[in-house]
Design brief:
By secondary structure, this protein is an alpha+beta fold. The chain is 28% helix and 21% strand. Strand 9 and strand 10 form a beta hairpin. The chain is globular.
């Protein structure tokens, strides 16, 4: 694919960057284009950027502040990274915006900081940007403007935030107040940093608040802000905390390259995916904090590959803007708090520009990603994930047995005593509840698709066709190439919960799923594979015990019945849909369906395929031999490997 010409990029350098061709100059040109594109949407005093697109639930003024704050972070990376040697108009715009945004008489003043207000999120970006550009912006502001900025930030002091990554917005903002000699609360900072200790679960992983909330917020928030705070506090003011934070980020980054496909795409999982290449924030922070285990050439190859991946697919768009979506506009991948400027948290993906041009990250020769060197298998017990990448097609797949974005579950003893294991759990979120995600697919996430809930899901179907939900995920095992979990299926009009246990076994490019299902009499068991999306309707084919969907470019998703599926002629099919997939307006997902059950327990085994190979699913039934002995399932592969699930 070719990068859109509207970005006006320099020629590629295939000597320094043999895999992406991109250098620091490409990053600077992309940042400049994104910043210049915002100016037509600025209010007269540049305090707000009111971009086109659906508004958030916070209102137009808050959305305008968001446009200023998040783009200011991008501008700060560009200004500070160039030592101030940028077009003077850039620094002047943001200095003017600070003056107008904090002036109640300007007509474009920012909302005051109040408890749990969206302004708290944006203030943190302003604080970081002011710190990084201090010689060129803060130090040159009129004293009265500085006083107004301090007064606006003072709304944080003693204030209440949401009890998740928001605690860190207060930490960095009040540390900025401290750095300019303004009143602040040391206890607010200490309590915020202490609180995230409760969410650290080991191996470099945090949850974002209580519960099993694992997604990109771990990298672009939980790891990022403590080390940005340390940059503001200085070496003598961090109380030794940054050493711990650096060690945790280092451990996190050991596994992080395994989340990226050979084409630069990150695994498509979690909320706020419209932030796109903000997923690069922990990679750059590892280099900035001098704690990365990644070689300099791997850091740049990973980062440039991801930025180029989006540029090749129209991000930013022909106007130079980031839209609410993944590639093009796609609102189902956003949240109600997402406004038209929300995607500009992608600015965090440009933190590498804070490194000087002669830093080895910018001068070293690119190195390959893990998936470019070999097939990879990575077990992540903390979030309950398996990652597996295949070198021949560059795809990385994530098997999910641990992240559900629900409040904490009742204690095990309470569940065994009869407590509802789903107490407090809300609706399933397609970006967390699926069994699998990948760098080449997205979940079907529009409301009409959620009602059917086919892809990446094992469901019981009520007589009227209503599918059960996965609800809260209870991890059981995650090691080597095997992971297991259980969840409770509920059907309309049935107060009982039915336990479904699933074990995923990885082998080559395949995932084999073994399900032990409890079901009422008459229920049907249905399972869906990966949903593929494209600009045109995918090809579909099926047989008595297999189904396949394939895009025009040859991405195939297949599902093969290995044991326990007895649906007959209607036991396998492909479901098509429109306007429900982040990768294109047309999508398709293969699925298997059983005959109505007699009730009680049953075993179902399926083979899940996602590949750019030519797939012949009817031949894959012979690739895995399944032996069921009671409730033990033994899988034997063609190479002799045996796994008991």
């Amino acid at each position: 694919m070719s990068v859109a010409p509207h970005l006006h990029l320099p020629p590629t350098d295939r000597i320094l960057s043999s895999r992406t061709g991109w250098t620091r100059a490409h990053w600077e040109a992309t940042a400049d284009r994104m910043l210049d594109a915002l100016t037509p949407y600025a209010t007269p005093g540049f305090a707000q950027y009111r971009l086109p697109g659906r508004g958030s639930w916070s209102g137009i003024v808050s959305d305008g502040l968001e446009g200023f704050a998040r783009s200011f972070l991008l501008a700060a990376c560009r200004i500070a990274g160039a030592g101030g040697a940028v077009d003077p108009a850039l620094t002047e715009r943001y200095a003017a915006g600070l003056a107008a945004g904090t002036d109640p008489a300007s007509g474009e003043a920012w909302p005051r900081l109040t408890d749990c207000s969206q302004q708290m999120v944006e203030a943190a970006s302003v604080a970081v940007a002011l710190h990084e550009t201090r010689p060129w912006i803060w130090d040159r502001l009129d004293a009265k403007v500085q006083e107004r900025v301090v007064d606006w930030f003072s709304g944080f002091v003693g204030g209440r935030t949401w009890d998740n990554n928001w605690r860190l917005f207060q930490v960095v903002s009040e540390q900025f107040l401290a750095s300019v000699g303004a009143p602040y609360s040391a206890s607010d900072i200490e309590e915020g940093l202490d609180r995230i200790e409760d969410w650290y679960v080991g191996d470099g992983w945090y949850t974002d608040g209580d519960g099993r909330n694992f997604d990109y917020y771990i990298g672009w928030a939980m790891h990022l802000y403590p080390l940005l705070w340390a940059r503001i506090a200085g070496a003598d003011g961090d109380g030794g905390r940054s050493a711990v934070h650096r060690q945790r980020l280092s451990r996190f980054l050991e596994d992080y390259p395994h989340f990226f496909g050979a084409d630069g795409a990150p695994v498509h999982q979690g909320r706020s995916l419209t932030y796109r290449f903000a997923a690069l924030a922990p990679v750059w922070m590892g280099a900035l904090a001098d704690c990365t285990p990644l070689a300099p050439g791997l850091t740049r190859r990973l980062a440039s590959g991801t930025l180029r991946h989006f540029a090749e697919r129209g991000v930013p768009d022909e106007r130079g803007l980031l839209t609410l979506g993944w590639y093009d506009t796609f609102l189902p991948s956003t949240q109600p708090y997402s406004g038209p400027a929300s995607p500009y948290w992608a600015s965090k993906g440009f933190l590498g520009l804070l490194l000087p041009p002669d830093h080895e990250v910018w001068t070293a020769h690119e190195l390959p990603l893990p998936v470019e060197e070999s097939d990879t298998y990575t077990a992540l017990p903390a979030p309950g994930w398996l990652l597996h990448g295949t070198r021949h097609d560059g795809i990385v797949r994530l098997v999910n047995h641990g992240s559900d974005h629900h409040p904490p579950a009742p204690e095990t003893a309470d569940i065994e005593a009869g407590a509802d294991p789903d107490e407090g759990a809300g609706a399933d979120d397609p970006h967390y509840a699926k069994l699998a995600y990948s760098t080449a697919t997205a979940p079907q996430s529009a409301p009409h698709a959620l009602a059917r809930n086919i892809d990446g899901h094992l469901a019981l179907l009520a007589p009227d066709g209503t599918p059960s939900r996965r609800r809260r995920i209870h991890p059981l095992r995650c090691e080597d190439r095997v992971a297991s979990s259980w969840s409770t299926a509920r059907l309309p009009g049935d107060e009982r919960g039915y336990r479904i246990e699933t074990t995923s076994v990885l082998h080559g490019p395949w995932e084999i799923r073994v399900h032990r299902v409890e079901a009422p009499e008459g229920a049907v068991v249905r399972e869906g594979g990966h949903a593929v999306g494209d600009a045109q309707s995918p090809f579909a084919s099926s047989g008595p015990d297999w189904a396949l969907a394939r895009t025009a470019e040859g991405l195939s998703s297949a599902l093969v019945a290995l044991y326990g599926w007895d649906g007959g002629e209607e036991g396998a099919a492909v479901a098509r849909d429109v306007e429900t997939h982040a990768y294109g307006p047309y999508s398709a997902v293969p699925y298997l369906r059983s005959a109505p059950r007699a009730g009680g327990r049953s075993i179902h085994v399926s083979l899940v395929v996602l590949s750019r190979d030519r797939v012949h699913p009817e031949a894959l039934r012979t690739a895995v031999r399944v032996r069921v002995d009671g409730e033990a399932v033994v899988l034997t592969f063609l190479d002799g490997r045996t796994v008991e699930a």
